[in-house]
């Protein structure tokens, strides 16, 4: 068949025959102008006497019928005789139904031929087919003919044969045949679509309307609401019409549906085996739909399910993807609304179980549990709680509250009810603090088991890491402790300890006092209570800054008790003190120089369960602890690898700037990069840190320290100095006298010297020396002695630096030792002790390079080259004076005093005197009076 596509034209001079469709204005179809244009472009071909055909396909509700009838009205106006027949599912078994509709429309009572009834009557098969053809041919003699067959896929077999019979016999007749068919409908067993339409019909696919067309059908102005409606229905006109009366103010189109549409779709699918069951399963599963789950939930054999899914995909009922979901949200909602509530609930419960067994994300399992409201699902409580936990920390507290209220519908033990109520309080606290307070009181009133309640409150303290969250946890824990009689059983003491640690780490003011508890510690026998006692003693020692051995000993006791204790609580693993952010931060700072204890700490932290704080990745705490220990030993490269890998995981969870441990990790990495000389990377990391959001965290202090160090190292000395002073003020305000947490005074003193503030530098060095001497650990003491060597002069400076090297030599602090060696070598060279300086600086270069501290290694190497040059004899004299001796001798010969020479060359007078004595000896003169002549004679001789 020849098909011609031209612009729409109507020949007004063509004779018009009587049409079976009365002339009337063609109805307007929003958004279907392109398709109608293609249909009307076929009119001129048929009007000129050549047959043409088109197939109009689309999914259910896309407007095939309306488009066909509009084209028929336009054809009638153009002079066609129009005959339209419609296939029906309920009449598809009646032979000749569609053919008779066409014949009745075209019947000419005056024509001498058998009656139309003979199409399916006693006449033979060939006579009946010939009769149908003659009816069509006779109609074309009266004028061009428009034949429209709507829903041809539902036509009876005999009518399909009639259409196929005439198709090859009307090629030279003025006939336009338009067939509409449901897209993807399985072909009839006898006659294919192309046999009725010809081999090359114009095929027009009706797709969903655009935003403008959807808005016109809905009676809306174009905008976000019309777009949302179009998305919910796929632009399907029939679905848009069904949506329109349900579009009440404030309604979300993606949540709307029609039970009537659900019934219609279910009826349409009934003709295909197993399709209704797959339809219901797909509606229940939603985005979780997959082949295996669809088959299992539908209770259909896999091969039968595959065939049903294939059919539904071809019909555009299911999406053609690996997850064959229903095509549009409105369709899914409609199928669900057509389902009885009990049926829906049971199916959602089954879907939740299937998803859980396949290891699906808890959020997806919980979504189905929410819909199974009338079904008891005890195993789902943990899923709902975990999903709620994730929802809170991803900024969706309302969803978390829904999950937890659903969990409360289950039959819960007293302990589990307390846990769920406290978790619900946290979720509600984000949007309604008074309601959260009421939940806490309800949880306290529900307490039945003392140990379980204390455990749950401790877990809550570990879960809520900072800011308002932490204050809620502290308040809840305090109420529970009071209810359990804080002065009584051993089981309450771990809760009191954890509450104290959380409070101490989340407030910016002075810490709470706990010495009043000391008298009650003696009778404690429970391991958990003894562990909490050791933790508080360790914290007291750290805060006071009085004794490093005491602090290390108490931390070691807490670790020993932790490692040997079993978790007695039935609710799960016992919360550990060392997982508390504040306690962990201080413990790693104290234990960094204790390799054995660091290993023990990492073993304690390396638990199989997920961390209590959702921001912290699994295994993050032992990784961070090892990184801190590596950094403390001067292994900067390996430490940075630990910090970088961990920081990426914090970034994935959004905890880098909000979680105290995430902030600590970022700050340690910045400090490490500063020592490695990676200033650009450190700057980039700090630029994305939220200093405002982290202000309420204790580890923000370390962030200030890291930024101060970076600023000083990159030339922004004044700003760096202010950061370091701010760090010190925060520590003082926090009651922290432990000098080893961050050596801020040492770096602030260096910055003060660079700024010319010698008095401030001396004061800071003196304070650091006193604090470090009182603490007694090698690292802070050696660091303080190095700082004293910078601010003191002459022999005092050299003694301080030598003592620093001796002190640091007994500790793992190799980077600090390299720093002390560099400062001592520089001082020795300045004092004219070049031989000593060279040996000292050589050690400094080797050690700093071993640490990977490139800036320090470069400085030590420069000082080493300078020291070696001073030992090289000057080329312009014959007596072997070094460059430094020659320079000082020339200045003395010019009349400068020893003090003036020392000031000009930044040397001590003692150093000047030593160089002059060496020059006198080499020149063979008794003193300064003969210096000028001896130098002149030496130069003439040279």
UniProtKB/TrEMBL annotation:
GO cellular component, one term: cytoplasm
UniProt keyword annotations, A-Z: ATP-binding, Nucleotide-binding, TPR repeat
One of the record's GO molecular function terms: DNA binding
TPR repeats: 818-851
Descriptive protein name: HTH luxR-type domain-containing protein
CDD domains in the record: LuxR_C_like
UniProt KW Glycoprotein keyword: no
SMART domains to which the protein is assigned, alphabetical: HTH_LUXR, TPR
Organism: Amycolatopsis camponoti
Gene3D superfamilies according to UniProt: Tetratricopeptide repeat domain, Winged helix-like DNA-binding domain superfamily/Winged helix DNA-binding domain
Cited InterPro entries: AAA_16, P-loop_NTPase, Sig_transdc_resp-reg_C-effctor, TPR-like_helical_dom_sf, TPR_rpt, Tscrpt_reg_LuxR_C, WH-like_DNA-bd_sf
Region feature Disordered, mapped onto this chain: 1-33
Source superkingdom: Bacteria
GO biological process, one term: regulation of DNA-templated transcription
Family annotation (Pfam families): AAA_16, GerE
Domain HTH luxR-type stretches: 874-942
């Amino acid at each position: 068949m020849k098909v011609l596509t031209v612009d729409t034209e109507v020949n007004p001079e063509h004779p018009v025959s009587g049409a079976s469709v009365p002339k009337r204005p063609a109805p307007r179809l929003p958004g279907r102008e392109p398709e109608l244009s293609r249909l009307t472009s076929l009119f001129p071909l048929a009007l000129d006497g050549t047959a043409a055909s088109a197939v109009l396909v689309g999914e259910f509700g896309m407007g095939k019928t309306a488009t066909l009838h509009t084209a028929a009205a336009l054809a009638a106006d153009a002079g066609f005789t129009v005959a339209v027949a419609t296939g029906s599912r309920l009449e598809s078994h009646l032979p000749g139904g569609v053919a008779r509709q066409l014949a009745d429309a075209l019947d000419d009572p005056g024509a001498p031929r058998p009656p139309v009834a003979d199409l399916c009557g006693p006449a033979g098969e060939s006579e009946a087919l010939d009769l149908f053809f003659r009816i069509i041919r006779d109609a074309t003699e009266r004028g061009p003919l428009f034949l429209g067959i709507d829903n041809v896929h539902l036509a009876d077999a005999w009518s399909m044969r009639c259409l196929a019979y005439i198709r090859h016999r009307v090629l030279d007749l003025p006939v336009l045949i338009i067939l509409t068919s449901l897209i993807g409908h399985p072909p009839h067993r006898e006659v294919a679509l192309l046999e009725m339409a010809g081999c090359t019909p114009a095929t027009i696919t009706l797709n969903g309307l655009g935003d403008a067309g959807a808005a016109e059908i809905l009676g809306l102005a174009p905008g976000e609401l019309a777009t949302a409606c179009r998305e919910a229905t796929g632009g399907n006109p029939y679905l848009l019409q069904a949506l329109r009366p349900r579009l009440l103010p404030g309604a979300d189109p993606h949540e709307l549906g029609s039970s009537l549409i659900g019934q219609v779709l279910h009826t349409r699918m009934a003709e295909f085996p197993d399709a209704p069951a797959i339809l219901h399963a797909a509606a229940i599963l939603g985005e979780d739909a997959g082949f295996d789950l669809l088959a299992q939930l539908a209770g259909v054999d896999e091969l039968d399910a595959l065939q049903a899914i294939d059919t539904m995909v071809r019909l555009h009922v299911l999406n053609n993807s690996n997850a064959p979901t229903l095509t549009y949200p409105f369709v899914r909602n409609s199928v669900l609304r057509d389902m009885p509530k009990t049926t829906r609930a049971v199916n959602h419960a089954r879907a939740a179980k299937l998803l859980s067994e396949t290891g699906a994300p808890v959020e997806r399992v919980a979504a189905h549990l929410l819909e199974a409201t009338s079904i008891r699902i005890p195993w789902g409580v943990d899923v709902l709680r975990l999903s709620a936990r994730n929802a809170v920390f991803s900024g969706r507290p309302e969803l978390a509250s829904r999950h937890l209220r659903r969990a409360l519908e289950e039959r819960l033990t007293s302990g589990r009810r307390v846990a769920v109520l406290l978790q619900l309080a946290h979720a509600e606290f984000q949007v309604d603090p008074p309601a959260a307070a009421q939940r806490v009181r309800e949880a306290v009133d529900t307490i039945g088991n003392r140990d379980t309640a204390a455990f749950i409150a401790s877990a809550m303290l570990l879960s809520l890491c900072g800011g308002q969250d932490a204050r809620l946890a502290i308040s809840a824990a305090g109420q529970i402790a009071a209810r359990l009689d804080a002065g009584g059983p051993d089981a309450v003491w771990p809760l009191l300890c954890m509450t104290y640690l959380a409070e101490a780490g989340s407030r910016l003011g002075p810490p709470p006092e706990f010495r009043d508890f000391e008298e009650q510690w003696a009778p404690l026998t429970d391991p958990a209570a003894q562990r909490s006692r050791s933790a508080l003693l360790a914290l007291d020692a750290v805060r006071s800054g009085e004794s490093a051995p005491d602090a290390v000993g108490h931390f070691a006791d807490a670790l020993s008790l932790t490692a040997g204790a079993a978790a007695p609580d039935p609710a799960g693993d016992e919360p550990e003190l060392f997982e508390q952010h504040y306690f962990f931060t201080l413990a790693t700072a104290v234990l960094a120089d204790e390799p054995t204890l660091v290993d023990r700490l990492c073993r304690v932290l390396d638990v199989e369960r997920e961390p209590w704080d959702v921001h912290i990745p699994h295994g993050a705490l032992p990784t961070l602890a090892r990184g801190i220990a590596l950094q403390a030993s001067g292994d900067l490269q390996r430490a940075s690898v630990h910090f970088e890998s961990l920081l990426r995981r914090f970034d994935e969870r959004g905890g880098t700037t909000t979680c105290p441990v995430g902030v600590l990790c970022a700050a340690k990495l910045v400090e490490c990069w500063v020592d490695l000389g990676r200033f650009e990377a450190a700057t980039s990391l700090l630029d994305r840190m939220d200093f405002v959001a982290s202000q309420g965290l204790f580890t923000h202090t370390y962030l200030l320290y890291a930024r101060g160090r970076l600023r000083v190292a990159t030339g922004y000395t004044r700003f760096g100095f202010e950061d370091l002073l701010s760090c010190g003020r925060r520590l003082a305000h926090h009651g922290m006298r432990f000098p080893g947490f961050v050596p801020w005074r040492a770096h602030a003193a260096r910055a003060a010297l660079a700024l010319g503030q010698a008095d401030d530098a001396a004061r800071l060095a003196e304070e650091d020396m006193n604090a470090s001497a009182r603490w007694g650990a090698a690292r802070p003491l050696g660091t303080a002695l190095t700082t004293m060597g910078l601010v003191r002069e002459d022999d005092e400076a050299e003694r301080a630096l030598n003592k620093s090297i001796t002190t640091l030599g007994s500790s793992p602090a190799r980077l600090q030792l390299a720093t002390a060696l560099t400062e001592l070598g520089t001082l020795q060279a300045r004092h004219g002790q070049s031989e000593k300086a060279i040996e000292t600086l050589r050690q400094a270069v080797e050690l700093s390079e071993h640490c990977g501290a490139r800036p320090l290694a470069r400085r030590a190497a420069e000082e080493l080259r300078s020291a070696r040059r001073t030992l090289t004899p000057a080329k312009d004299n014959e007596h072997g004076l070094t460059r430094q001796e020659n320079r000082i001798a020339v200045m003395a010969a010019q009349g400068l005093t020893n003090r003036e020479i020392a000031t000009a060359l930044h040397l001590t007078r003692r150093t000047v005197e030593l160089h002059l004595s060496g020059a006198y000896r080499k020149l063979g003169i008794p003193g300064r009076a003969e210096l000028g002549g001896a130098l002149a004679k030496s130069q003439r001789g040279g």
